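Record type: monomer structure entry
Structure origin: computed from sequence
Chain ID: A
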Amino acid sequence: MNLLYISISGNTKSFAKRLHELSISKQSQSAHHPIIQIKEISDNTLLDHEKEPFVVCVPTYLEGGNGVDNGDQEILTEAMRDYIAYDDNATFCKGIIGSGNKNFNLQYCLTAKQYAEQFSVPFLADFELRGTSTELEQIYTILEALHAN
């Protein structure tokens, strides 16, 4: 299973790396567990054709307002949206994972929810900041089930 992520503050990158490491650990215990390969997308990433299924992990950065009825302009993460929208990449996207800070209330994981709606894929899960070990295990289980289907 491939995980594409974008990280601004380092929280999402930390979570993605820990998820990758967890998948290696589980795979060494049993060959039935998938290894999660991670790929960072940034403003410097060249648009490319994805050829295998992937899941996206995206934080939320919005400009002003409350993020619901005003001020829900995505900032800093547009490179991921562009990457998914490139050519037929969206057809390989199996879902979106959101990260954020619950202090932002209704804005929490709003970018991920907007991606899920735009690309007609499920909003799979969320985690706060760098994610807890419980959130890591829960999201791994979700990705493992996706991989099995």
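Annotation 1: The chain has four helices and seven strands.
Annotation 2: The mean pLDDT is 90.
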